[in-house]
Amino acid sequence: MITPDLVVFYLANIIKMSQTDGKMNPKAQRALKEVCKSLPMDNKTLKGAAGMVSGGGHVLTPVGRFSDKVRNLEDMLYVALVDGELSGSEREEIQGFVEKIHVTEQQARTILTETKIKLDLQMVATECSKCGTNLVPGTKVCPVCSEPIATGNPAR
């Protein structure tokens, strides 16, 4: 797990990727929020990471152990692909990061494929109508807000 002192750089990479194609749409915002839930961070960390990117000079920076770097790549791909495509500029940024962390082309393709599968599975998942949390299929009660989940509630 990435250490708290490095989370700001890890998160800045993800924010940068979410804005690389010139926009951060609502899907990318939700994806970023989902990634943030899995990190040891607070609002100060998020603001610090956003500040690093807003200046325009942030370069994707590998941080942590090799497994942290690969996870960061997965999270960046997730945020970049959530809008349904990987733009040319996103592809270039990802390729540069892949080279920095010494992931082979085959490994990068595998990570890309697995990320696409994750997104495809989310398309069939449900979403809480009260708080918007993505839920695994078959969930009967939202684990975040305790809202009962109606069957057949499609993801938005």
Task: Characterise this structure.
This protein has 156 residues and is mainly α. The protein has 2 domains: 4-123; 126-156. It is 56% helix and 3% strand. It is built from 6 helices and 2 strands, in the order H-H-H-H-H-H-E-E. The protein has helices at 4-19, 26-37, 43-54, 66-81, 88-100, 105-123; strands spanning 126-127, 134-135. The protein has a two-stranded antiparallel ribbon with strand order 1-2. A hairpin with a 6-residue loop joins strand 1 and strand 2. The two termini are 31 Å apart.
Topology (SSEs and partners):
Blueprint: H1 4-19, H2 26-37, H3 43-54, H4 66-81, H5 88-100, H6 105-123, E1 126-127, E2 134-135
Antiparallel strand pairs: 1-2
Helix pairs in contact: 1-2, 1-3, 1-4, 2-4, 4-5, 4-6
